[in-house]
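Help! Submission page says 'invalid entity' but I think these are all valid:
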Amino acid sequence: MSTQGRRERERAEREQAIIAAARDLALAEGWDAVTTRRLAAEIEYSQPVLYSHFKGKDAIMAAVAVEGFAELANALAAARTSAASPRQAVADVAAAYVAFAQQRPAIYDAMFTLAVDLPFATQDVPTDLARGFAELAETVRPVAGDNDLETFTETFWSGLHGLVTLMRSGRLRRPGHDRRLAVLVDRFSR
Amino acid sequence: MSTQGRRERERAEREQAIIAAARDLALAEGWDAVTTRRLAAEIEYSQPVLYSHFKGKDAIMAAVAVEGFAELANALAAARTSAASPRQAVADVAAAYVAFAQQRPAIYDAMFTLAVDLPFATQDVPTDLARGFAELAETVRPVAGDNDLETFTETFWSGLHGLVTLMRSGRLRRPGHDRRLAVLVDRFSR
DNA sequence: ACAGGAACGCTAGCGGTGCTAGGATTGCTG
DNA sequence: CAGCAATCCTAGCACCGCTAGCGTTCCTGT
């Protein structure tokens, strides 16, 4: 009876180990370094074990992304609720978003640039992703004026995403990043 | 004497054929379908020939991206110069930018999301890329107010880039795209 | 306690990738 | 026309994601 429970628990732990290994390896050396062989070696099992937990490498990346959505939502919530004023909240949340992307570039990639086949319309991904989006929406609500809030939020989000991706890929020079962020916040706070 | 000229010309033509094949294949089936073997078959040469023209697959993608920069700059210039008013120019150029990205997604990827090792600080890439950027800058100049023009332009560009990438990766729903673009243009035109 | 069976994880391998070493063939040159 | 240099191809390397098939181990019912 309890043996089954133990096995399930061990299975869950191993699955978590796979996700953690993928995450750590991606953060340390980038997603190119995350191969199924290295992942298998990291968790001290053979390759095929990975496929008893996940459909494929993409699914593993998606699992890492899911964790990322939760982290990002938390970071945004913290920034928003600790802000002194609604306008300051916009700046703080924007800064938190950018900081998240810069500190965990590999995870940000998994969330927003790679792994297109994420279960976007099902499962628990929308939960944390929607939470993050809701944080953004609540943040800009006071400054949205008579714009449709969802559209306004999406556009603001796009601005942040564009800044993050263009800068990290070298299309924007690192200096001036704060000023660009300030311009974006300014345009969306009036 | 002229034989050498002919050979050089043939070589240049073959190089162009490689770029064209890569471009067409990427547009038709995505970059994953662009393998060195298929590319070699397409130009009816063996694989190693590719490496006598380009350092590797990345360099081929970079060459496609370079062509893309020129196309994009032309499209933006056309939109800007044919606009009725400065404010309309912002909307038209933004629409042209988004249209370019949507009609040639693979090329846009090569330009802005993949191929990080583009010769960004050397060679002729900056020429066309800078031309495109300059078009954007000229477009938003009348509405930039007392903002630093370069910073302002980069931020606007980021907004466009974010809209394009988030929508194509499924993070934004297709309907509402025009409204989001309108919001972006509005925020940067006041 | 023990036989039967199911679940499990391994080894080995498939087809594919980007890339390269080496030799054969071609074509120019003195 | 001999010799050389450039050119291009065959074959293969190391690696990738993924899977078939087989031993082993462990749980189960009698």
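Support: the input was valid. A stray whitespace character was the problem, and the output above is from the cleaned input. Residues 7, 45-49, 52 of chain B lie near DNA strand D (CB under 10 Å from a C1').
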